[in-house]
Specification:
11 helices; RlmN_N; iron; metal-binding; S-adenosyl-L-methionine; 10-stranded mixed β-sheet; 356 residues; TIM Barrel; DNA polymerase, domain 1
Length: 356
């Protein structure tokens, strides 16, 4: 029997766009301009208690408390890497757990957020899919990850400058919540992150790639491909049976044509599986002439999987072959390796320990 999903007691205040909050205020007989004040408290001052919103009337604060709640992220674990990466494991209202990672770069601080509890995509090299999908996150639960991290960084006058939606789960299978989250992050009354400093990653959910293209923002799109053809991709990514490689590539071309923006293809290199010169040749032939960029990712070791990462010299050879086809290629810099910073690893350990 399927376990019933536990609902929160009240909707989350972070679920609301500015327009939705204005509509709610009007329904309460309050002026719409109060929405801007509330957003300043939420995203500018980052308070986590309605009573702290001192320029609102007590009556309005009581209405807010009666109708909405703040997201409670219970910090179960916080790990800090020697390279400055911080990984959080947060407990949610229903005792599920999610991961969030804060990374320091020479160009600023980025945060990697999660959009689902678990994942049903089933990529065979990823820890996120262990245990399957439990539920989608609410938009507010995605927002709360950024606000929580930024509140900690406020103490040292540091600022999150970029966001990657690449944590556990498939954002485009939780599309509306993800879209609301993105809108709040880039809004000039929200977190004020520049659109070009936000990237959302998908495993290739074709209808939503096209819908995202039609949204026509400056937000970056990344596609996990991990193979140059259907046969191999279906072995590594069961989602390919639903959305075949050719359909994904067609949707990517539609995105490029519609937006004029470059697309990023993520390719996890697995020793002896998808990292051979012939794979690079085939991938280069598919992508040649496309407005794109390939990000090569040495696969992370996951105890429950038996994949081994590609030797360094083979990674550079794969890159050389792609570049010989005029395909722009980089190798992802590894961060947080000493704290199990790959998607799903910390949660998988937590699930195992709680099961015991």
């Amino acid at each position: 029997m399927k376990k019933e999903i536990q609902l929160p007691e009240k909707p989350f205040i972070y679920d609301l766009t500015l327009e939705a909050l204005q509509d709610w205020l009007k329904s309460q007989g309050e002026p719409a301009f109060r929405a801007g004040q509330i957003f300043d408290w939420l995203y500018g001052k980052r308070v986590v208690d309605f009573d702290d919103m001192s320029n609102l009337s007590k009556e309005l604060r009581e209405k807010l408390k009666a109708s909405y709640q703040f997201v409670t992220l219970n910090e179960i674990t916080k790990l800090e890497s020697k390279d400055g990466t911080i990984k959080f494991l947060f407990g949610l209202y229903d005792n599920h757990a999610i991961e969030t990672v804060v990374m320091r770069h020479n160009y600023g601080i980025s945060i990697c957020v999660t959009t689902q509890v678990g994942c049903r995509i089933g990529c065979t090299f990823c820890a996120s899919t262990l245990g399957g999908l439990k539920r989608n996150l609410y938009a507010g639960e995605i927002v709360a990850q950024v606000v929580y991290a930024q509140r900690l960084l406020d103490a040292t006058n540091e600022r999150i400058s970029s966001i990657v939606v690449m944590g556990s789960g498939e954002p485009f299978e939780n599309y509306e919540a993800t879209k609301t989250f993105l809108a709040l992050m880039v809004h000039d009354k929200g977190m004020k992150i520049g659109q070009r400093h936000v990237t959302v990653s998908t495993s290739g959910i074709v209808p939503q790639i096209r819908e995202f293209a039609d949204w026509n923002t400056q937000i970056n799109l990344a596609i996990s491909i991990h193979a140059p053809n259907d046969a191999l991709r279906s072995k590594l990514m069961p989602v390919n049976r639903r959305f075949p490689f050719a359909d994904v590539m067609d949707a990517c071309r539609y995105y490029i044509e519609k937006t004029g923006r470059r697309i990023t293809f993520e390719y996890a290199l697995i020793n002896g599986v998808n990292d051979q010169p012939e794979h690079a040749e085939e991938l280069g032939a598919v992508l040649k002439g496309m407005l794109c960029h390939v990000n090569l990712i040495p696969v992370n070791y996951v105890p429950e999987r038996d994949y081994v990462r590609t030797p360094k010299e083979h990674i550079f050879e794969f890159k050389r072959i792609l570049e010989s086809k005029q395909v722009n290629t980089t190798i992802r810099r590894e961060q947080g390796h000493d704290i199990a910073a790959a998607c799903g690893q910390l949660r998988a350990k937590h699930m195992e320990s709680t099961a015991r």
